[in-house]
Write a structure and sequence with these properties.
The longest helix is centred in the C-terminal third of the chain and has 22 residues. Helix 1 packs antiparallel against helix 2 and helix 2 packs across helix 3. This protein has 14 helices and no strands. The chain is mainly alpha-helical. This is DUF1013 domain-containing protein.
Length: about 230
């Protein structure tokens, strides 16, 4: 059975424009013989406009002529260029050089400490690691847990800054959306602007200072000694 685009529309065109048998059309379009017969009788696909498989690049004129002259022949469809373009492209898994693989636990530790809102799936995709490794680092059960230190994955060369920023923004947006949906206040400092997480004591220190004058900052200028005119004489 051939897989073509718009099988019923193609069958309508073949019924109207060729002398192919119902079996040939049904086999080419991937339909049942009775469906093709229903199209010919006007009982099926009444409102469907025929689609020319030759113009669509799914059938050659030579293949069609051969099938018309030989009723037992079954046409072979061409691979549609449109179908190839519509196929989702599967991204290859991230490759991490062997020399950098030992640094992945440090990068995982950095995510766990500084950006807990980033999911394990995101970390796994960014660093090319497994969820079990992430769990081991998080729970300090990794075989090298004593030597693992949080290090920025950009510094380690495992991801680019653009990829890291995009992942953090996406995770933050999801967390905010979930919090708003549940009506829970979001108090995570990692999702707040820097100005919003200045300690209160530091703010009070600056706000409680009186206005400073030039003399307070630079000190007062030394007074020049005054000489009497008589002394100069």
């Amino acid at each position: 059975m051939s897989e073509i685009l718009m099988p019923k529309a193609t069958a309508v065109w073949l019924v109207d424009n060729t002398s192919l048998s119902f079996e040939q059309i049904a086999d080419f379009c991937g339909l049942h013989f009775l469906e093709v017969k229903g199209i010919a009788d006007g009982e099926v696909a009444r409102d469907i406009r025929g689609a020319d498989p030759i113009a669509n690049g799914q059938l050659t004129r030579e293949e069609l002529d051969k099938a018309v002259s030989t009723p037992a022949y079954r046409m072979k469809a061409l691979v549609s260029r449109h179908a190839e373009l519509l196929k989702p492209s599967k991204k290859a898994p991230r490759y991490t050089p062997v020399s950098r693989r030992q640094d992945r636990p440090d990068a995982i530790k950095w995510f766990v400490r500084h950006h807990p809102e980033v999911t394990d799936a995101q970390i796994s995709k960014l660093l090319g690691t497994t969820k079990s490794t992430i769990e081991q680092v998080r729970n300090n059960t990794h075989w090298n847990a004593a030597n693992i230190k949080p290090v920025d994955p950009v510094t380690l060369g495992l991801v680019s800054q653009i990829e890291l920023d995009a992942a953090v923004r996406k995770a933050a947006a999801v967390k905010i959306k979930q919090a708003e949906k549940l009506g829970i206040p979001l108090d995570d400092p990692s999702l707040k602007p820097a100005a919003a997480i200045i300690p209160d004591e530091e703010e009070d220190t600056y706000n409680s200072r009186p206005d400073l004058s030039v003399e307070d900052v630079f000190g007062s200028a030394p007074s020049r000694p005054v000489h009497d005119e008589d002394d100069e004489d």
